[in-house]
């Protein structure tokens, strides 16, 4: 059974998830900010990070990547469609806001293949390409454990914004319908912001998905 820790971090309270197994190995998903805090939390829990996985490369999901990879000497995984975004404030969105510094992160170490079962360390999950919020958005499906980490694709009673670079509202809804609503209705959805939900709740109650 996997243990999931959720931390809402940074100026827009982006969810970082730390997923740990019984051996205390862990994956760090979307460390958006507050790197020193996350490092302390991981060490306090005696966890052994295996990798950082990014659901997409917007600034609020990547801010602490270099702090964590340097502290734990671990690789960073993402979708190749956004490989140029980490170091480019014009693409990752930080350049859009005068009150923010320009976020420039070193390149990813490896790229995840979508529609394929993936193993990182002892963790096994499916990677599905769910573009629409951004071109390289992915969702991580832990089917045996009954949950999915979906970045900013689907939220509780809402969906991801599509007014940023590469956003596409029709493609977003198609991604949600094809890859997320098709999961078991009891599957817990862990989004990039706000609280978890389930597939069944969103089928029944999400006003943006009424057409499905």
TrEMBL record:
CDD domains: metallo-hydrolase-like_MBL-fold. Pfam families: Lactamase_B. Residues 13-193 form the Metallo-beta-lactamase domain. Gene3D superfamilies: Ribonuclease Z/Hydroxyacylglutathione hydrolase-like. Keywords: Hydrolase, Metal-binding, Zinc. Its cofactor is Zn(2+). InterPro entries: MBL_Glyoxalase_II, Metallo-B-lactamas, RibonucZ/Hydroxyglut_hydro. PANTHER family: HYDROXYACYLGLUTATHIONE HYDROLASE GLOC. This is MBL fold metallo-hydrolase. It comes from Kurthia gibsonii.
């Amino acid at each position: 059974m996997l243990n999931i820790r959720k931390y809402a971090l940074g100026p827009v309270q982006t969810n970082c998830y730390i997923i740990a197994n019984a051996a205390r190995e862990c994956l760090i998903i979307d460390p958006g900010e507050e790197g020193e805090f996350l490092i302390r939390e991981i060490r306090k829990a005696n966890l052994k990070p295996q990798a950082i996985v990014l659901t997409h490369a917007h600034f609020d999901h990547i801010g602490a990547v270099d702090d964590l990879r340097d502290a734990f000497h671990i690789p960073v995984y993402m979708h190749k469609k956004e490989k140029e975004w980490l170091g480019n404030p014009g693409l990752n969105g930080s350049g859009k806001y005068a009150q923010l510094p320009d976020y420039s992160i070193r390149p990813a170490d490896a790229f995840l293949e979508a529609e394929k079962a993936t193993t990182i360390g002892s963790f096994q999950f499916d990677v599905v390409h769910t573009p629409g919020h951004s071109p390289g958005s992915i969702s991580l499906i832990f089917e045996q454990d009954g949950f999915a980490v979906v970045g900013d694709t689907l939220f509780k009673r809402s969906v991801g914004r599509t007014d940023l670079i590469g956003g596409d509202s029709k493609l977003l809804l198609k991604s949600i319908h094809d890859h997320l609503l098709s999961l078991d209705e009891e599957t817990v959805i862990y989004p990039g912001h706000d609280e978890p939900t389930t597939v069944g709740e969103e089928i029944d109650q999400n006003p943006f998905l009424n057409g499905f």
